[in-house]
């Protein structure tokens, strides 16, 4: 594909490169010759592998973004954070309960939260990170689960938090607790599982398995469509 | 991007005006579904699978003579990345009961089930090319099918699957999927996966292309992400062994012709490592990064078809590789995100595909192959698409309809990912349509398995996208997610059972030598090596001046 | 109804839910609607004592900004924010004072307040619910009483943070009367005792339980010696150390006077005749209900 865009200057970990100005940071780094092993995953904004921090020309502000989504700008100073060191607490979900103190018990550093909002500032997914950390701190597991849902664990919040909290680990625990214990399983799913185990559908499915292509075709093309 | 300036260029905006003009009249209106003949016609004329000059017959091995995309034939007709006589098999780095290659939905499920079926966590090893969970599984947006609603049944689900797959699916694999489906959802709920529910606590279910019931369970449009991250969390909780940035490049066999582990490649240190295992589970996913017919892809960075290469060299059967799925709605604009997935659920919730004149030209939820062909026809056959500055053609997907039909706020809630991603480029999909075109999405065929996920080679199991025969020649939306967990779990269980009694003999790489001879015999002359592990995206001028000193 | 901004604080939503429930019920009876903002954060409960620590003021000041937003949106009728927990009260009030009097730290706090659309102007007044009652007038409180707590001897326990330091305290440090006035309005008998402002041990309850046990022992015993049958408090941590922690006290001092400890608003709810859900006595250990029944103040 022809690239007619104007070229811009970027600095990748200090080294200067001229790259087409309409590329994302990821593609610009590849254009400049980097082959990613770390720092690239889904390339589509879903996995958090390409967490990147940068400063813009003339600005002291430290910004965060996903390399696969952010377009380069002239004078950008870029560094990648493909890994944030964060030991995840282990637990047996079956033994936990969604009590007010559970989150604090597994992540006691939550109490160090200063409500400074640096995490929210760093988040490339526009999540209200401080709010879900605060919800976790005071035991509001439902709110923590709902607010943290869009998190892709890129790690930018964790590397910037002055209280050294790892918000994405906290959010993961909140969501599992909420889903399992507060939201709870759907009854019709459990009912259907029992029916299958009892063999309710065995005969009719076996018949279909033995049917010829013509028979199946007939059934398929004339099947009832009920999308209510 | 300023609030008032759209990400769309002027000439695109003109077309959008036409879309807006027809919108009110299109609410509630649909388009006639195609007849079986019409479907066959549009497929043959426009689906990439029918471009015979882009395929060739494989020249080596048990699938010799089978037609498949050139790019797939290229990786199968290639040399190994290792030279067997330079590999020291006597020094074993990892000696385990169950080796899982790949840590997407299938691999993670397999590892968890192996542990639940009696294998100690440190006797399981997951090897992963990138990070735990980095896989196509994570990127799945719309949902997972399972027949648990009262007005649905596994039987109806069976018919949908086999019809959608053009009757090429293996019946017993389809049976496994539909019967295990509800149990998979139950398992997820026990693990704490947060599914969308209605106020009364029942699952929020959506239709999908080719489904006759509402059957799609979802977690907003982050379904794959939500499930994958819970599984990763659980794998770590149970202290199951894993090593990241370590790819498998060839299977190791023993003197009883069993697969007995794999040669691994550490991508940080460039060294090879030997893993011996009583059972090996292949869960390496798809091949989108081979860019079949130069299509952009929805797949993740590491989807390079490694599994079928390794399996084929070890003597496993491959099926249906002539069939590739193109997702009808990949992003066509802006250029930075061309090829990325726009979930089918957008259409399930009311978005309609429209040509440049704002006209609906196809039933929005035909099966994916038919839908994709119709979009290609509209752009290239009837020339009624929009062409972007970079030369990509596309049609509109009228997303504002979703807000009109389901109420304001629907997109922000249920399509948070799409809304966010497009916002970053100045396009508000609540108010403006998306530009879409088919994108390379899914490997329909692959390694042949039975209901226990056994391949034709003892000691080798396979699960997930790397397998063939489950979806026939066209996969329905939400069934690949189902496939991952159904067969991932079965593979884990079966592999664990076998590992309890299996005996491994003397290790060797003879099958690699045999394959090399086969290539020579069949006159395959090439410098190609496979698996390729990662696609090459470095700039041209850099590649021309490559020098390897360190 | 007068609408006042209300800051609950973390514990009021979980362990001290009875404090909140009884407060909201009594406030309604007195014609006050307590408006909680949609977003608020933990006050930090350790307001910063050193002049070069600005970070720990972000949390309390951010809450004051939330209260100001309520006023800007027309959801409340005054510039006050009402607090219940003595620690939250103290933290918010002192940070507000720092913000309003120290221009250097005010600037730093503002500069580090990320992701807010507006800057805090400093124009919020932090009050404790007891002050709200006093401002309203004790006769108004008395008017709302349907069942005077006649014969109930209650010792007001102030703890550390309601009265100190000067300027932050809600009453005179040496001779406070605010809780006594409340008790009088409710028809109860206020019992003074020397330890009403002695620290309960605070966070030592986490890892140095016997420190708390000793302090609680002294406080409870002295109150009982003076004739008190019950203690009231305005702080969830004090309530915990003097109430549920009595099991620890018993371990060290097997013979001591176990008397119940309740939040002042629970007695208000009882006197106002607001019912079980408002008095919320099921949340208290030891259970105050046997005593209240004995006194004929609670139906069976």
General description of the model:
The complex is a heterotrimer of chains A (228), B (550) and C (300). Chain A has 10 helices and 5 strands, in the order ββαβββααααααααα. With 228 residues, chain A is of the alpha+beta class. Chain A has a 5-stranded mixed sheet with strand order 2-1-5-3-4, covered by helices on one side. Helix content of chain B is 33%, strand content 18%. In chain B, helix 7 crosses helix 15. Chain C has 300 residues and is of the alpha/beta class. Chain C folds into 2 domains: 129 residues, Glutathione S-transferase Yfyf (Class Pi), Chain A, domain 2 (Up-down Bundle); 157 residues, Rossmann fold (3-Layer(aba) Sandwich). Chain C has 14 helices and 8 strands. In chain C, strands 2-1-3-4 form a 4-stranded parallel sheet. Chain C has a 4-stranded parallel sheet with strand order 6-5-7-8, sandwiched between helices. In chain C, helix 7 links the parallel strand 5 and strand 6. The chains are: A alpha+beta (228), B alpha/beta (550), C alpha/beta (300). Chains A and B meet through helix 1, helix 7, helix 8, helix 9 and helix 10 of A and helix 6, helix 7, helix 8 and helix 14 of B.
Summarize the structure.
Chain B is of the alpha/beta class and 550 residues long.
Mean pLDDT across residues of chain C: 93
What's the CATH architecture of the largest domain in chain A? Orthogonal Bundle
| Name of the level-1 CATH class of the largest domain in chain A | Mainly Alpha
* CATH class membership of the largest domain in chain C: Alpha Beta
How many helix segments of chain A?
A: 10
Number of H/I helices of chain C: 14
Q: How many beta-strand runs of chain A?
A: 5
Helix content of chain A: 25-40%
* CATH domain topology of the largest domain in chain C: Rossmann fold
- Global structural class of chain A: alpha+beta
Largest sheet of chain A: 5 strands, mixed
H/E series of chain C: EHEHEHHEHHEHEHHEHHEHHH
Helix fraction of chain C by DSSP (H/I, runs of at least 4): 40-55%
Radius of gyration of chain C: 19 Å
Keywords:
heterotrimer; B: 550 residues; alpha/beta; Flavocytochrome C3, Chain A, domain 1; FAD/NAD(P)-binding domain; eight-stranded mixed sheet; 33% helix; C: 300 residues; Glutathione S-transferase Yfyf (Class Pi), Chain A, domain 2; Rossmann fold; four-stranded parallel sheet; 14 helices; 8 strands
């Amino acid at each position: 594909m022809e690239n007619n865009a104007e070229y811009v200057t970027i600095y990748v970990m200090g080294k200067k490169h001229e790259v087409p100005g309409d590329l994302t940071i990821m593609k610009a780094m590849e254009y400049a010759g980097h082959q990613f092993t770390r720092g690239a995953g889904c390339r589509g904004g879903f996995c958090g592998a390409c967490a990147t921090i940068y400063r813009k020309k003339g600005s002291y502000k430290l910004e965060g973004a996903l390399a696969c989504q952010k377009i380069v700008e002239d004078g950008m100073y870029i560094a990648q954070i493909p890994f944030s060191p964060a030991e995840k607490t282990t637990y047996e979900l079956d033994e936990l309960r969604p009590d007010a103190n559970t989150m604090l018990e597994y992540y006691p550093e939550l109490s160090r939260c200063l409500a400074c909002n640096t995490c929210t500032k760093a988040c490339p997914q526009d999540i209200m990170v401080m709010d879900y950390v605060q919800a976790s701190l005071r035991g509001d597991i439902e709110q923590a689960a709902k607010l943290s849902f869009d998190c892709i664990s890129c790690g930018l919040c964790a590397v910037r938090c002055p209280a050294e909290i790892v918000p994405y680990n906290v959010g993961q625990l909140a969501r599992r607790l909420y889903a399992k214990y507060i939201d709870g399983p759907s009854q019709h799913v459990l009912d259907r599982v029992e029916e299958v185990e009892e063999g309710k559908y065995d005969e009719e499915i076996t018949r279909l398995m033995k049917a010829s292509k013509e028979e199946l075709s007939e059934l398929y093309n004339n099947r009832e469509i009920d999308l209510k | 991007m300023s609030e008032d300036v759209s990400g769309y260029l002027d000439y695109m905006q003109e077309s959008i005006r036409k879309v807006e003009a027809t919108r009110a009249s299109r609410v509630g209106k649909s388009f006639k579904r195609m007849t079986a003949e019409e479907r066959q016609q549009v497929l043959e004329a426009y689906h990439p699978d029918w471009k015979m000059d882009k395929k060739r017959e494989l020249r080596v091995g048990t699938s010799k003579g089978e037609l498949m995309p050139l790019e797939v034939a290229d990786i199968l007709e290639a040399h190994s990345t290792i030279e067997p006589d330079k590999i020291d098999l006597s020094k074993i780095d990892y000696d385990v009961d169950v080796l899982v290659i790949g840590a997407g939905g299938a691999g993670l499920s397999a590892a968890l089930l192996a542990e639940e079926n009696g294998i100690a966590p440190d006797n399981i090893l997951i090897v992963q090319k990138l990070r735990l969970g980095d896989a196509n599984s994570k990127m799945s947006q719309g949902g997972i099918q399972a027949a648990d609603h009262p007005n649905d049944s596994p039987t109806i689900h069976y018919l949908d699957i086999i019809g959608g797959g053009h009757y090429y699916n293996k019946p017993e694999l389809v049976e496994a999927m539909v019967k295990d489906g509800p149990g998979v959802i139950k398992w997820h709920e026990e693990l704490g996966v947060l599914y969308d529910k209605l106020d009364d606590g029942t699952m929020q279910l959506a239709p999908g292309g080719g489904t006759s019931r509402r059957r799609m369970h979802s977690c907003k449009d982050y379904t794959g992400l939500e499930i994958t991250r819970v599984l990763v969390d659980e794998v770590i909780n149970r202290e199951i062994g894993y090593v990241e940035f370590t790819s498998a490049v060839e299977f190791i066999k023993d003197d009883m012709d069993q697969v007995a582990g794999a040669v691994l490649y550490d991508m940080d240190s460039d060294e090879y490592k030997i893993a011996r295992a009583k059972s090996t589970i292949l869960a390496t996913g798809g091949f989108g990064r081979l860019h079949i017919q130069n299509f952009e892809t929805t797949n993740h960075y590491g989807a390079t078809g490694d599994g079928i290469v390794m399996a084929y060299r070890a003597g496993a059967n491959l099926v249906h590789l002539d069939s590739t799925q193109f997702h009808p709605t990949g992003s066509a604009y802006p250029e930075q995100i061309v090829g990325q997935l726009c979930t089918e659920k957008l259409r399930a919730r009311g978005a309609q595909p429209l040509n440049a004149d704002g006209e609906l030209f196809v039933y929005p939820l035909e099966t994916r192959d038919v839908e994709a062909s119709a979009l290609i026809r509209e752009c290239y056959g009837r020339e009624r698409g929009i062409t972007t500055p970079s030369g990509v053609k596309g049609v509109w997907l009228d997303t504002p309809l979703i807000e009109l039909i389901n109420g304001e706020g629907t997109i922000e809630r249920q399509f948070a990912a799409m809304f966010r991603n497009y916002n970053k480029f100045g396009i508000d999909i609540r108010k403006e349509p998306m530009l879409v075109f088919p994108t390379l999405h899914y490997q329909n065929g692959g390694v042949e398995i039975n209901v226990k996920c056994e391949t034709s080679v003892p000691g080798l199991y396979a699960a997930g996208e790397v397998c063939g025969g489950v979806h026939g020649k066209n996969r329905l939306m939400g069934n690949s997610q189902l496939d991952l967990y159904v067969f991932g779990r079965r593979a884990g269980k079966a592999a664990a059972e076998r590992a309890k009694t299996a005996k491994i003999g003397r290790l060797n790489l003879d099958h690699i030598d045999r394959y090399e001879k086969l290539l020579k015999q069949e006159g395959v002359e090439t410098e190609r090596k496979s698996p390729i592990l990662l696609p090459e995206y470095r700039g041209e001028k850099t590649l021309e001046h490559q020098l390897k000193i360190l | 109804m007068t609408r006042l901004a209300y800051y609950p604080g973390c514990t009021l939503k979980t362990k001290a839910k009875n404090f909140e429930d009884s407060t909201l019920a009594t406030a309604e009876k007195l014609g006050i609607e307590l408006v909680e903002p949609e977003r608020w954060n933990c006050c930090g409960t350790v307001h910063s004592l050193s002049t070069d620590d600005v970070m720990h003021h972000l949390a309390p000041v951010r809450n004051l900004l939330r209260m100001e937003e309520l006023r800007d949106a027309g959801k409340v009728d005054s510039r006050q924010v009402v607090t219940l927990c003595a620690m939250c009260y103290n933290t918010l009030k002192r940070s507000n004072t720092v913000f309003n009097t120290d221009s250097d730290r005010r600037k730093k706090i503002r500069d580090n307040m990320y992701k807010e659309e507006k800057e805090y102007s400093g124009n919020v007044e932090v009050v404790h619910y007891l002050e709200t009652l006093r401002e309203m007038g004790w006769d108004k409180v008395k008017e709302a009483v349907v069942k005077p707590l006649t014969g109930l001897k209650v010792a007001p326990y102030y703890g550390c943070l309601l009265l100190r330091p000067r300027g932050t305290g809600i009453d005179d440090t040496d001779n406070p009367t605010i809780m006594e006035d409340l008790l009088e309005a409710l028809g109860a008998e206020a019992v003074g005792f020397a330890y009403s402002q002695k620290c309960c041990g605070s966070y030592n309850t986490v890892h140095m339980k016997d420190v708390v046990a000793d302090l609680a022992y002294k406080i409870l015993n002295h109150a009982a010696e003076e004739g008190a049958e019950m203690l009231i408090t305005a702080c969830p941590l004090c309530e915990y150390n003097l109430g549920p922690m009595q099991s620890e006290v018993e371990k060290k001092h097997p013979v001591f006077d176990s008397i119940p400890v309740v939040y002042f608003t629970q007695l208000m709810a009882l006197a106002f005749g607001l019912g079980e859900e408002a008095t919320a006595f099921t949340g208290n250990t030891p259970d105050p209900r046997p005593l209240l029944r004995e006194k004929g103040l609670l139906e069976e």
